[in-house]
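Our platform keeps sequence and structure together, in a single record for each protein. Such a record has a labelled line for the sequence and another for the backbone structure tokens. This encoding replaces a full spatial description with a residue-level series of whole-number codes. Below, we set out a record of this kind in full and without editing:
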Amino acid sequence: MTPQREKVLVAMSGGVDSSVAASLLVQAGYDVTGVFLCLGSAGAADSATRGCCSPQDAADARRVAVALGIDLHVLNCQDAFAGIIDQFVSEYAAGRTPNPCIRCNAIIKFARLVELADSLGAACVATGHYARRVEVAGQPAIARGKALGKDQSYALLGVAAEHIARILLPVGEIDDKATVRQMARSLGLAVHDKPDSQEICFVDGDDYVELLRRRAPQALQPGDIVNAAGAVLGRHEGFGQYTIGQRRGLGVAAGEPMYVTRIDPASAAVTIGPRAELMSNHLSASGANWHRSVSESFEATVQIRYNHRGAPARVTVTGPGTFDADFHENVSAVTPGQAAAVYDGPILLGGGWID
């Protein structure tokens, strides 16, 4: 990052990553303003409206802003976030496995930040994601973070291409999370040892089943557990409690490990099988968002979930918002509802939603 007095808005969640991101920008000479994104009413009876803006998070963000000598705005995003929760529960009801974080990044953390930046005359927006903003052939691009074990570029595939030039991702230049925590400690930031946030911020204790019980009870329709031939092996208490590739909690005794291979919401049947039946060499995706111009058919690395490191594939653009990926070797647990991110080396080209 080049020191300059450009104004930049930093999304500050009260966590260590965004706090260090803000401090790095201050040190680099930017005119920094923090933004706390309020996604719901903390402590509401319905935890689905809680969001990830607890009073503690808000207080932590405020303390960090004071320590850094910067202003902190609160941006109310409850309306947009409610739609993300609605989509989350409807995907489970359709037998798919959603990824709300990717949608939140695209719809709220960057789109709303850019909108606010425009109103405040800020040139750039920043977050604490472990990814990098780079230049490729003179064009801005998102790349994998240097801390590959923490890389979050996958979660940015939905960010609008026109926003990338205005994004700063200072934490993505750091090699590991331990260094980030040490930086926060050396700055005297009280959040230096704050635990990482949970994966689904609006689900208390990761109990999304309770959320489905309130918001989409049809996703908890009991049904049969069957094999690929349709033979009934057992019963389940709600197909929404399963995802492709799941092994634990099946309640079926077999002579080998069994995995969920298919979910049929129409019949409420959950199909299981051995690992070989979980493998696939193809996916089709829709809702494609491309950060860069791509050919009709090209070689790439395709990542099919957050903790997947990607696999070589031939990607074929099949329409304005669709593409196929044909993997050179079988991959495990291609899951409808999850995102497929497409990379050229470390560079994120874009991606879409697995159908």
The radius of gyration is 21 Å. The longest strand covers residues 279-290.
